[in-house]
Amino acid sequence: MQPLPYSTRIKLLSHLLTCFLSISFIATINIVADTNSVAVEAESRNDRFFARQFLQTTSSSQNITNLSIINTSEQHQLFRGTLWNGEGTQQGGETALIGRAVPPMGRINLSSEEIENIFGIGPWKGPAILRVEGESNFDLISKLISPSGLTSNTNCVREDNVLNVEGFDSTNMTFVRLINTNDSDTGVVIGTLYDSRGNVVGKADSVLATNLTSFQQLWLSRKDLSNKVGSEWSGEALLELSHIDGLKLLNLNYITDEKTFFNFSCFEDSDSARVYLQTTSTSQNVSFTHLVNTSDADQQFFATLFNSDGHVIGFRNQPLHFDVVPPRGRLIISSEDIESAFGISPWSGPAMLEVKASGTFELMTKLTSPSGLTSNTNCVRKDSVHNIGGFDQSNMSYIRFINIGDTPIRNIRGSIYNSDGNSIGDPNIILISELPPKAQVWRNRNELSSTFGDTWNDTAALKITNPHANLRLINLVYVNNATFFNFSCYETGL
Fold first, then answer.
1. Is 474 exposed, middle or buried, given 0-12, 13-18 or 19+ CB atoms closer than 10 A?
2. Parallel, antiparallel, or unpaired: how do β-strands 77-84 and 90-102 relate?
3. Which of 148, 165, 169 has its CA nearest to residue 255?
4. Rounded to whole angstroms, what are the CA distances from 248 to 17, 162, 218?
5. pLDDT per residue over 38-95, tens digit each?
6. C-alpha to C-alpha distances, 424 to 56, 76, 139, 232, 386, nearest whole angstrom
7. What phi-psi label fits residue 336: left (phi over 0), alpha (psi between -120 and 50 degrees) or beta?
8. Cα–Cα distance for residue pair 294/431, rounded to 1 Å
9. Sign of CA dihedral 267, 273, 275, 276
10. How many alpha carbons fall within 13 Å on the CB side of residue 231?
11. Long-range CB contacts (within 8 A, 24+) of 424-427
12. 242 Cβ contact list (under 8 Å, min separation 6)
């Protein structure tokens, strides 16, 4: 066989090299494409939203839990859940499917029995934590029906501190629930208790728990805390914990005489620096506001009081007290104290109090209703509320619209949605044509019904259209014409 001419061999080698490079290039493209496909798929799987129901009772409990999962996104979505009992042991399967796909602004309402059926289990022991997983934005609001029959809001937690650990001079019982939301141990949980004067109760840096395993939850009663710090106390105390990532705190008060739980885990701080619902001394609803100095230095508190029409009552930046408040101490002021500090007579309707100080602080308001029960009211939302009871309910729902800014908010629009996500009446209606600076306005269920031109049963949600940055909302329910319950605090899927 004769060898190929040199020029022919060059052409053949060039052709083979081109084929090789083409094959290599195509293979590389395919590999990159496959890699990108895996990355996109992994990103899609990881693009989930999570929120937790922190106190899920069982069907055998005297305290009945009703959980609502509200789809606040603009698309239908499915929800899944994982349940852990108090010891952190998973109950049933992981990421169990929770019901049907939920339309935008629709909700799933779940009883304890329904949750047991979803996970294919019987009643577990003690409260549990339920982690809900969604595909987009959603909210979790929980109603706890106590043995008294009264319904309170429980799905709200803190980190690092709680303000309302009532002392041994109170007939009420305080409970703090330590909740590990991580898939890892916490290690030692350290805490210090401070009385109203800022003095350490018993021993500082006491061991509250040697360890919480993954997803474990632990109740600490007032007696438990007393045993751990080695002392008793009177009045409300502040409990501070060394920071642990993923450790949440639930602060409940059990009113012994009425057999009712109230959640005191929600309050405002020095960033917002407002008491949103300050009643007058002539009101049937008595306010006691706690200003807790969480800084490391003595502080004095100054305040400005705004009537419901937004006008200043008295003078601006008035001192609320004469003596300084020490670190970790608190100032407790009544409506009479405020009237005395500002040199004014009782005003008309609730007011808003803006507070100033040189360092950090927390603001908690305890509202005693005509029933004698004391609830937590200093907690607000920005763009929606989820507990507007329908006309099949005897209790009355209220929403307070608050302008915290220095300019008017005009044409506040919104829509009300039923459990199926359908708009009740006309959507995107003007609720308030103008809310002056610092003004606050009530709207009850009947007034909202007149505005939207329709009635509803069950529980509805109000969503504000393009909410103004200075708009705040309080969602109260007046139960048995005797007690206010605050439903402004709930968890959001992130």
1. buried
2. antiparallel
3. 148
4. 64, 10, 11
5. 332 222 236 899 999 999 999 999 999 999 999 999 999 999 999 999 999 999 999 9
6. 30, 19, 20, 53, 14
7. alpha
8. 38
9. negative
10. 15
11. 424/452, 424/454, 424/456, 424/460, 425/449, 425/451, 425/452, 425/453, 425/454, 426/452, 426/453, 426/454
12. 189, 190, 191, 205
Give the count of alpha carbons within 13 A of 391, CB side only. Answer: 9
**In whole angstroms, what is the distance from residue 232 CA to residue 467 CA?**
47
Residues 84, 90, 91, 96: is their CA dihedral positive or negative? positive
Give me 257's structure tokens.
């005489």
State pLDDT tens for residues 411-454: 999 999 999 999 999 999 999 999 999 999 999 999 999 999 99
Delimit the domains of the chain by residue range. 49-148, 161-265, 269-376, 384-492
Domain 161-265 has CATH 3.40.50: no
Contact 301, 331 (CB under 8 A): yes
Rg of the chain's alpha carbons, rounded to an integer? 28
Which amino acid would we find at residue 208? L
d(CA 242, CA 207): 10
- Are residues 255 and 373 in contact, defined by beta-carbon separation less than 8 angstroms? yes
pLDDT classification of 2: cutoffs 50, 70, 90 = very low
Token pair of 240 as six digits:
């501070």
Mean pLDDT, the chain, integer: 90
Task: Tell me the per-residue pLDDT of 360-390, one tens digit each, with 9 for 90 and over.
Answer: 999 999 999 988 899 999 999 999 999 999 9
CB proximity list for 107: less than 8 A, separation 6 or greater: 68, 69, 70, 71, 386, 419, 421, 461
Instruction: Give residue 53's pLDDT.
Output: 96
pLDDT tens digits for range 9-29: 444 444 444 443 343 333 332
Residue with tokens 């399967």: 93
Please give the class, per CATH, of domain 269-376: mainly beta
Identify the pLDDT of residue 494.
84
Class of domain 49-148: mainly beta
Fold agreement (161-265, 384-492): yes
Report the predicted TM-score, pTM, of the whole model to 2 decimal places: 0.88
| More confident of the two residues 4 and 269 | 269
- Please report where in the chains the tokens 């999962």 appear, as a residue: 69
Confidence (pLDDT) at 46? 61
Buried b (16+ CB within 10 A) or exposed e, 104-140: bbbbbebebeebbebbeeeebeebbbbbbbbbbbbbb
**Matching CATH number, 384-492, of 2.60.120, 2.60.40, 3.30.1460, 2.60.290:** 2.60.290
